[in-house]
Amino acid sequence: MNVIIPVAGEGTRLRPHTHTIPKSLLFVAGKPILAHILDSFRGLKISKLVVVLGQKGDAIIDFCKKYHYNFKFVHQDKRLGLGHAIYVGSKGLRGPTMALLGDTIIDYDLHRFCQTSDNALAVKAVAEPQRFGIVEVKGTKVTGLIEKPSAPKSNLAIVGLYYFQKIELVRKAVDYIMEKGIKTKGEYQLTDALKHLLEKGLNFSIVKIDKWYDCGTSAALIDTNRYLLQKTHHFKPKKKTIVISPVYIHDTAKITNAIIGPHVSIGENATITNSLIRDSIINRSAVVENAMLDESIIGEEAVVRGGLKKLNVSDSSMVEFP
After folding, report:
1. CATH class (in words) of the domain with range 2-214
2. pTM of the predicted protein model
């Protein structure tokens, strides 16, 4: 089969980190988001793996050189929506194709997901369905599709993982909504194209996913880091340092006089001294000194320095620092 991964989004909700790094290369639980996705493809027989690029695409191309898939890189010059991204990425493809968003980590057996004679949409029940593409179902069969409904009739959100028996039909459907100018919130949505196919009689089934981790905001990235560390926990003991699991500490990180964890990822060549860090992501070559960090993301080569206090406080006193 083929695989399409759209990674053209600019990641505006993750700025300032995405000013210099593509969203899909942000570090979480020991490696970039895209690495988690590509590693999940092990064991799949992939004919062609298409990556749909936007700005800073060269960095993604360089990163993908670490893998041995049959890559094809295409550019989405204008951000016209997910439907348009799939349209651009599917050019020249035919037959079975899986599509997976480049800022989403899904903990599911992808081999099992693709073992179907139907078109499959991965879904999950959500608290705010009006924020997502929503499916209406009867059993496991899809009866309706709507993008970001104001009055949703279902709470099953499409989580960004798809399997199509004939990708050429999806491309034609996107072409149709573009010709008709069918947009939702100013973009050509894949959900609207699939709705068109559903109305023409194409069958879709749902696969319910429990573990779906969006990496679209800083808070979501921290949440995803917290979960994935349960599976990617790794560190070697450091002198004068207390480590509270789970954490991921790259072997080249230099750490002294610190308390690290729980739920901390530290990238290669980072330097941390005299600090307490929990529930945070410290990227490659960052420096943290004399600091207390919680729910923080420190970018590559960034420097964070706090201040140490020396006190001589008598009995029954109270000292508060802002």
Report:
1. alpha beta
2. 0.85
